[in-house]
Specification:
Distance between the termini: 27 Å
Radius of gyration: 15 Å
Structural class: mainly alpha
Number of strands: 0
Largest sheet: none
Shape: globular
CATH architecture: Orthogonal Bundle
CATH class: Mainly Alpha
CATH topology: Hypothetical protein af1432
Order of helices and strands: HHHHHHHHHHH
Number of domains: 1
Helix content: 55-70%
Bound molecules: fe (ii) ion
Number of helices: 11
CATH superfamily: Hypothetical protein af1432
Length: 186
């Protein structure tokens, strides 16, 4: 996955080139996780912009100077905010908002679906506590007023699934071509 010098998204590709082999969770690295999430989105008929959001939702982890140390120390790396702000250089809210809300969506699902957290990975359960735990009913109702919240919930479910030891995914090149096609005109 050599970044193309001509790509308008070269800066994003450089991040994956530099940090994409970092282990994301139990069995996948950042690139595999990104491609698996995008593939689940595509398989479920998501729009191109939501597939791109799924692909890029964790770029903030790779921007954080030491996400693993933050986790070990019990600190929230606020990767969803870092990532959404970074991606806003190229994409509109249809991409950035589901990214910005995907951590809140986990807290939301823990409130609305009491059995949801049984399926979370060990790391997701650990970060849930750091991120504030399950939402209250009032917080969940407020979450449902935010633009693109249903897309954030969909993204969250793909995020939880995208940790497969072995899975055929869309190619990096196809994924980045789709991302380029979703760049907002400036
Ligand atoms: Fe993720």
């Amino acid at each position: 996955m050599k970044p193309s010098a001509a790509s308008p998204l070269r800066e994003i590709e450089n991040l994956f080139e530099a940090h994409g082999s970092l282990i994301y969770g139990e069995s996948v690295n950042q690139i595999q996780h990104a491609l698996q999430c995008a593939t689940f989105a595509q398989q479920q008929g998501a729009s191109d912009s939501l597939i791109v959001a799924a692909l890029l939702h964790d770029v903030g982890h790779m921007m954080h100077r030491d996400a693993a140390a933050a986790l070990a120390a019990g600190n929230d790396d606020v990767h969803e905010k870092l990532g959404a702000k970074f991606l806003a250089q190229w994409f509109g809210p249809e991409v950035t908002q589901p990214v910005a809300l995907h951590v809140q969506a986990k807290r939301y699902l823990c409130c609305r679906e009491p059995l949801y957290n049984l399926h979370l990975s060990a790391i997701s359960r650990k970060t849930l506590a750091i991120q504030g735990g399950a939402m209250t009913i009032e917080q969940a109702e407020a979450f449902e007023t935010q633009p693109h919240w249903p897309e954030a919930v969909l993204l969250r479910r793909w995020d939880d699934l995208g940790k497969q030891e072995s899975m055929e995914t869309i190619s990096w090149q196809d994924a980045m071509s789709m991302a380029v096609s979703c760049v907002s005109p400036t």
